Amino acid sequence: MGPQQTAWRDADRLGELSAEFTGWRIGRGGSGHWWAVRGNDLVRTPDVEELRVRLHEMTAGSRYPTESGKWPD
Asked: Which letter does DSSP use for residue 3 in this model?
């Protein structure tokens, strides 16, 4: 896969994650690590799927409203 295709794929992943996890700022650093930050919460990992899993875990037990705007039980 060429560099341009990789960039398109990363952009697609960023769009998916941003839509799935509103309230989080999500990106990919120059080191290749994916990251997400919300308030004082930071997640950083080299694998995008691990980032998704960890964000789900953090959102489920969060002190912040969920993606739907409702507070977790």
From this structure: H
